[in-house]
Amino acid sequence: MAGFFTDFWSTDDFDRNNFLKRNRIIAGLSEATIIIESAEKGGSLVTADIANSYNREVFAVPGRITDTQSAGCNNLIKHQRAHVLTKPEDVPYILNWGIENKKMPIQKRLFVELDADEKVVYNFLKDNGKELLDMIALKCNMPTFRIASILLNMELKGVLSY
What we know:
The protein is mainly alpha-helical. The protein is 44% helix and 6% strand. It has helices at 16-29, 43-53, 71-78, 90-94, 116-128, 133-140, 144-156, and strands spanning 32-35, 57-60, 83-84. Helix 6 packs across helix 7. The chain is flat.
């Protein structure tokens, strides 16, 4: 997934506690979470739990049973909290991304209703073009997490595209 998602300003210091807060966003936006390597405890396992709580698919790459850095992935698989990932083709197979499942195109609505905050953001983007998330939040006088939510809703409504 391309991009950088966070509740924090770009000027904030990096703090390992903030990574889990960011990962809850990634787990929610992603259709699947892939854990490649993890000890018995760690941040990636917390992210896997978050993804499971969001009813997202979780994949884990198995490792040797004697390797401490594989214990987390092996436990996810053992407790049926993740699909076994042994090759890249496993992901589209499990997610049912087969070619035969082509989706019908969705017709965009001609008149989309925007709430007050969406109108503020829309007008800002119309006047200023593409802009950084922090800058939109600053200029629209809204918190970054709110702007991120508004932009997602506007994209889902077909008002914005990336």
